[in-house]
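Dear support,

We are seeing what looks like truncated structure output for some complexes. This example has two components. We would appreciate it if you could run it in full and send us the complete token output so we can diff it against ours.
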Amino acid sequence: VINLKREIKRELELIEPPDLWAMIQEYARADSAVAGLPDRRRPPAALWVALAAVTLLLALVASSLPRNEVQTVDTRPAAEPPQVGGDPDSDEGASSVDVQISSCRGGSGIVTAGFEVTKRSSLRLLNDPSDYIVRIKVVDEAGPIGVAAAVVRNVYPNNPKEAEAVAPIADTSPAGPVVTNCFLEDVQRVAGT
Amino acid sequence: MRVTEVRGAVEELYRSEGPRLWSAVRGFTGDGDISDDAVAEAFAQLLRRGEEVRNPAAWVWATAFRVAARELGRRRTTQPDPPDTPVDAGMPDQQVLSAIARLSERQRAAVILHYYADRPVKEIAELLGTTAAAVSVHLFRARNHLRNLLGDDL
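Here is the complete output from our reference environment:
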């Protein structure tokens, strides 16, 4: 028993533990960002009551304001939705969504591409309420034949999804397209979700 | 306690417990990536929960092991033919860790927590969500199995 204890300790100490503090803070930031997003899966009834009350209150306040006040309008261009995916070293926090193509099949003008959404860390079960558009380039022997796209909701890791072609798939052979490969084109978070 | 104080306390705990916890999870899983994620996840959750956690050190150990066990389970279901032993567990100077990698998951956790982390059987039982008697059985069987694998060296 003494040998076992000593040997486990000796062998484990041969492997230097990494400094994970930066990673921990990044995870915590991602958690905070997701916590700040609305959870559409369980919209509480009280929320609607509260929203109605606030709307009514604002309407009352607005109607009591003098009409000749200068209105301030924000003319800045709307922010671009964050581009996500692909870069594991990105500091995007909760916006980091990685996608892996898991299958690709097609014929008769329709191509279905399977893919799996993974987070930077496959362990993080962040039920992200945002929508993401995943575009997948479909290729046959002659080259690209179309793009498959899908809107993905409630992103969580290792949840297989499928994207069906929305663009016409060019027939490059009499029997229809012979899909040879699919490549991830981009993953984009839908703004405002 | 303010956010900065929570952060400072969690960082202090990470500096004192993190490396040892990482090594323990590494011994349990045989996988550095799972260990990174499990330990980071546990401390990140601790940061979020702050004062809700009454015994942060015990909590973070339990959470890291649970997260790691969950990932091992997930890999078993998503990878149809996983190797018998983790890829990086078979280095020539890691015979004991290689042997431990061939134990059952519960036995591995019990062995690492008992012999590496010096946790008493009762505490291991709480951490693994089982009874002290079951942990004792896991340790007994694990020792026998390791003796068969490693010979009389142990």
